Each structure stands twice: as C-alpha cells, then as structure tokens.
Amino acid sequence: MPSSVKKVEIQNLKVQYGNKEALKGISLDIYENEILGVIGPAQSGKTTMLKTINRTIDFTVDATVAGTVKVDGVDVRSVKNIFELRRKVGMVFPLPVGLPLSIYDNVAFAPRAAGMRDKNRLNELVERCLKQAALWDEVKDRLNSLGTKLSGGQQQRLTIARALSHEPEILCLDEFSIAVDPVTTMRIEDVLKELRSKMTIILVTNLVQQARRLADRTAFILNGELVEIDSNDVIFSDKPARKITFDYVNGNFG
Amino acid sequence: MDNRRRFEVISEFLIEWTIKICGISAIVFVFLIFLFVFREGKDFLLNSLDLKEFLFSPEWYPDSVSHKRYGVLALIAGTFSVTLLAMAIAVPFGLGAAIFVSEFSNSKVKETLKIVIELLAAIPSVVWGFIGLSIMNELIIEMFDAPIGLTVLNGGIILALMSVPIIVSIGEDALKAVPDSYREAAVALGATRWQMVYKVLLPAAKNGLLAAVLLGVARAVGETMAVLMATGHSLQIPHSVLDSVRTLTATIAAELGEAPVGSDHYQVLFIIGILLFTITFIVNLTADLIVKGIRGK
Fold first, then answer.
1. CA atoms lying within 13 Å on the CB side of residue B293
2. How many domains does chain A fold into?
3. Chain A nearest-CA residue for B295
4. What pLDDT does A254 receive?
C-alpha cells in the first residue's frame, strides 16, 4: 500500500519547446509504492513530465526546463551520476522499442551498461525480469533470436522486462497499451499490480478506465496545466473538485 | 467524368512504364559495358591466353620483341597492397568521423565538418596525384630515408584520403537513419553515450556502414590517376610499404593509348578490365552475402 514518503516531488515545473509551452508550471508529489495514473488528452504534456524525471529531456535540443523535480529529495539537475538516476527510473514507451539485439541482450543491456559481467547473475536476472513481464514462457526457447522479430504485444512486454532489468525504484509507463491487444493489456496490468509492492509506478494513459482500474491516485493534466490530482475515489466519483474533470472522465469532453 | 478517368488510366500507365524503363536501363547499361569490354578482349581471351600464366606470373612484357609475356600477378599485388593499406587507414578514420559527426558534435561543428568533407570529396583525383607526387614523395624520402617516395605507402595514404569522405558521408547517413527511439531507449536504460553508440547504433546501422566501407573499397580499387602518379608505376611484387608498385587500373590508363587497336596487347588490357570487373563483382557479392547472413541470424 502507498506510504507517505515522497518519492518524486515536482514543483512549479515549466517546460518549453522553442516558443511552445508544453508544461505551464505543474506541482505534484508522487509517493512510494503508489500507482499514480496520469490522464489527459494528447499534447497536454504528460510525456514531457516523464522525461524530466529521468532527464532524458536533456536530449531534446530546444527544450528549456524551469522549476524543480526531486527524486528521493534530490534535485535531478544536481545529481552527479546521471546514469544512476536513469537506472533508478524505468521507462516504457508508447510504441515498443525493441533494440536491434537478441531478446536476452535487450534485457541484459542495462545491467551490462552498469558493469554487471557475471554470467550466472545475468542469466538469473534475465529470467526473473521476463517472468515478471509475463513473457518468459513464450520466449524461453529462443532467447537468442532478435527482439525486433517478436509480435507487438510481446515486444511491449520485452520493453517492460527491460525496464525492470535495472531494478528501478520508479517505473514510468507511457501509454504502454497503445499497441497491445486487450488480453495482453490485462496481463500487463496484473503484473503492475504485483509490482506496486516493490516500486513507485507512474502510469500515463489515454484510457481513463485503465487509470481507474490500476491507480491509487490520478492526476488530470490539460494543456500543460494540472487540473486536479486526488485519490481515485474522488476523481472517479460524481463530485471531483472540478467539473471539467468529471466531464473528461465520463467522456463528455469537448 | 469519363475523360478524367481516361486521363488517369493513361497517366498511370505512362508513369509506371517510365519508372520501369529507368530501372531496367540501369541493368542494361551495366550489361552493355561488360559486353563491350568482353568483345574487345574475347579473341585473345578464348584463343591464345594462358590463364595460368596470366594470373600467376609476375612477368608483364607486352612490348618485348622476342617473347611477349602477359602476367598480371604483380599488377594484382599492386592493386591489392595499395587498396588494403588505404582501407586499413580509411575505415577506422572514416567510421570514427561518421560517428563523431552524427553523435558527438553539436550542430555548428556538424555543419562545418560536413561542408569540409564534401569539399574533400570534390577534389579531382589528379590533384591528389599531384599531392602524392610532390609533397608526399619528399616527405616519405625524408622520414624513411628511402631512395624514392612514390610507394605503396604514398598511394595508400592518398587513396585513404580520397575514400574517407565517401565513408564519412554515407556512414553518417546510415547512422542518421537509425530511429531516435533507439537512442532514447538506450539512454533511458542508463547507457552512456559511447555504450549507446557501440551497443545499439552500430548494430542497427551495420548494413549502411558496410555499404559505406564497400563504396570506399570500390573507389580505392577503381582509382587510376592518383595511384598512377603516387605509386611510382614500377612493376614488382611489393615486399614492404616502401616499395613502388603498379596497379591494374594504372596499367590500362598508361598503356591503352600506345597499344595498336586489336593487337594482343590491346586485347589483354581489356582482359584486365574484365578482371577488375570480376574483382568488384566479388567484393559486392561477398558484402551482399554478409549482409544477408547478418539479417538471417
């Protein structure tokens, strides 16, 4: 169950791409061992928020970031070992990005990058992550074939296994079910429920019902602004704080 | 309405055929070139050429009055030694530069470098030959205390300088074609930039990078003027990089004007052309097989 320890603190976060404001000063806290759902229409800044947490936004050339993002109380812009920060945060992208490597190498990529060489430990870890991502039974006989040859749903579970391989404390999922069939989606959702005891999960999703099913709390972001963040009991009730939240959640939007 | 429909059908038909003809013409031209080269050399090739002597004898005396000999082993050795040396220099430098330009430089440096590299590619081969003949020649004589500076080393360096721009620009294109999502994914997993390049980009771009290297090889094998000027054009199998050599291409260029049309000598020069054709064909075929092998894995 969620604790009261703040894992991620976002304070007045503003992000601009050139002249275009993607986030207009949002503030929210994410607690340890909770699943935070983040909902909102396309282009509202959800992905941008995730990118500021592990600082992959550094690679977007024209992005300027203001405000602070703290992980475990430390401003991410002051961390010395950026690679350690990135390994603390697992990322799953909307479209599965199977690296052009074997299934095994995909999962072993991050541990190897961190310097793990011991074969037995790697084998163990690859097996555990693939099992956690509910993919092991389907691929255990062909770990050396290319990850990019798997089906879309399998690839997405592979990227989840990969995101788990560096034992992240925070797992960010960015619309993970966009290219996955409903059955696989349900399997992955079950996996996420199990993982909650071990890590903090940020679930960005276009599917309002998915946030309702999985999250402890849900944040509604619209046009770069945080409209409302509260427990699911409130957000999905008849009376959230803002009427616009009610309309969005119930599909009366626009 | 009917007219419009007819117009669409006709224009579709024309466009389809134009594209087809463009595609087929490429094959036809290559085939015709081969046919022409073969025709010029075929009488001698089929009737009087001793293939064993041709390929394995280093004695190339097409002008001898008493006993003409047509052995091209020394020429093959010349071409291979210069090309190998050039590739040993150009491949690491070219690929390294491509990686730097594509992944490690900011946009200002990148633009400048690309312009310089394109400029480098535009230098005519005779100018490279001149640099080999005048500057490199003296440099090598001084540095190695050699009797002559027109050597395998000289030609290899000149060819390397000529191949690097090709390898860089095509290699950079290949790296640029790798989707950014791969970079993002690798970085999000905590990879350093170099780990990302080495473990993700190079495997993802390997076909394009191989093509870059091959075009570099093709340029080196086919180059004529620069090697003619820089390698000393002396007939021998080289024992060190400080020996002068003569290449297949330079021989054709230097002797074709002197050989009477239709004579044995003239025909043998065309057979050397066929040999060059075969070499590039084998290089391309091997590369194709390698790429297929990588894909099939």
1. 7
2. 1
3. A146
4. 58
Instruction: For residues B24-45, give the mean pLDDT.
Output: 91
- pLDDT value at position A175? 87
Q: Residue A166 and residue B203: Cβ atoms within 8 Å?
A: no
Sequence-ordered alpha helix ranges (H) in B124-205: 125-131, 137-144, 152-176, 180-188, 193-196, 202-204
Find the CB nearest A97 among B107, B181, B297.
B181
Confidence of residue B248 (pLDDT cuts 50, 70, 90): very high
Domain ranges of chain B: 2-40, 73-296
Predicted complex ipTM exceeds 0.85: no
Q: List residues of B whose CB lies inside 8 A of any A CB.
A: 107, 181-192, 195, 199-200, 203-204, 297
Mean pLDDT over B250-267 rounds to 90
| Euclidean distance between CA atoms A106 and A146, whole angstroms | 9
Residues in chain B within 8 Å Cβ distance of A162? 189
CATH of domain B73-296: 1.10.3720.10
pLDDT for B297 equals 47
Give yes or no for A115 touching B (CB within 8 A).
no
> Which chain A residues are closer than 8 Å to B107 by Cβ?
61
A74 near B CB under 8 A: no
Contacts of A52 (CB under 8 A, 6+ apart): A10, A13, A15, A65, A69, A76
Q: Once rounded to an integer, what is the mean pLDDT over residues A207-219? A: 90
Task: Mark yes or no for CB contact B199/A166 under 8 Å.
Answer: no
pLDDT of residue A35: 92
| Rounded Cα distance, B73 and B21, in Å | 41
Closest-CA distance, B49 to chain A, in angstroms, reads 51
What average pLDDT score do residues B222-230 get? Answer: 90
Domain range enclosing A183: 34-45+82-249
